[in-house]
Amino acid sequence: MKIAILGYGTVGSAVAKTLLDNQELIKARCDEEIIPVISLARTQKNDALIPIVNDVDTILNRDDIDVFVELMGGVEFPFEVISKILKKKKAVVTANKALLAYYGCELEKLAKNSAFGYEASVAGGIPIIKILKEGLSANNILSIKGILNGTSNYILSKMDLEGLSFHEALKKAQDLGYAEADPTFDIEGFDAAYKLLILANIAYGLKAKPEEILIEGISKIGKEDIYFAKEFDYVIKHLGIAKIQNKKIELRVHPVLINKNKMLAKVDGVMNAISIFGDILGESLYYGAGAGGMATASAVVADLIDIARKEKSSAMFGYLNSTSYQLLDKEKINTQYYLRLKVLDKIGVLSKITQLMSDHQISIDIFLQKPKKENDDCSIVFFITHKTYENNIQFLIEKLKKQDFIQDEIFMMRIED
Length: 417
What we know:
With about 425 residues, this protein is α/β, with parallel strands linked by helices. About 35% of the residues lie in helices and about 25% in strands. It has 14 helices and 18 strands. The strands form two sheets. Strands 7, 8, 9, 10, 11, 12, 13, 14, 15, 16, 17 and 18 form a twelve-stranded mixed β-sheet that branches. A hairpin with a 2-residue loop joins strand 9 (about 235-245) and strand 10 (about 250-260). Pathway: Amino-acid biosynthesis; L-methionine biosynthesis via de novo pathway; L-homoserine from L-aspartate: step 3/3; Amino-acid biosynthesis; L-threonine biosynthesis; L-threonine from L-aspartate: step 3/5. Belongs to the homoserine dehydrogenase family. This is Homoserine dehydrogenase. It is an enzyme of class 1 (oxidoreductase). Its EC number is 1.1.1.3.
């Protein structure tokens, strides 16, 4: 089986190396040689293990290629290229989460008569897509909660364990190569959101777009929030969450306060972890490297082996339930909320805050005031609410912003049980 690698960067070169170094092992597992024969890259690379060209049509026009591995990144151009390949009834493997988040439905229609592997698009080396499509296929999936971005998890771990500020932890992540020079895609939640949408499509047949779901990042988390979390036995994690609520699917990606004894709370550094709750199995946790050339290459090559074995799903996303789930409106999310406020330290402020909460059908579960510095005329106060709806908390925040006793930006985070 001859392979073309479209994109010879960190992952593409790791795929080529894995196929060549483990050639005998791979052949033994699928009874066929899988040979990388050509790759696409913008420039020539002196250390390339296979021939490189910079014109995609040179590769697409070859009749001897059995599987095309797309590792270019981006959305529109890869969609154009993969569409051409699928129309020729050729097999495709991709690691492109953004492509699948935006064009998964269109590609599913084109891939009906072709093998299409995308294990590497979510959680790197964790075979979570195969787990959902095959290992848990007897279960109705009640919820998926995952640490889906290693960069954000590393930053939050450093803030928690070493007392670093967000910017100090980000700088450390960049120095180690865990974060890009422009880290927006990771720290603002977009990477995790694309992955969550792929998992939700598999589990529920939900064909939502990134713009339709709640996405928040970690850049506004401060040392004060870490302080509060420790005081009340919480850990802050950035999670992608999908769960059934009133026959609709709740999808959201944001930082959460989670009890320190929960399994996901114990996952630190650049690792990924995904908790899945099935109606038959109950909760199961999947843990491993979520990014990096070799972890992603492991998932890509696993898809290639499946194709060589002629194992391909009858549906690209593997969803066979005839029930059509709908996306729950963001405003109807129902959970507990954490609020951090910097306020003038004067008589009557607390009563005004609690009255505004009452006006918006919000009750207080926990209240804490951080000891203030000498001669400081402001205090930092923290609240955890009882369960309420997203629209209630958003109305409250807008009302609080207009109060003259509020001295800094209001920070809100959700609680996950």
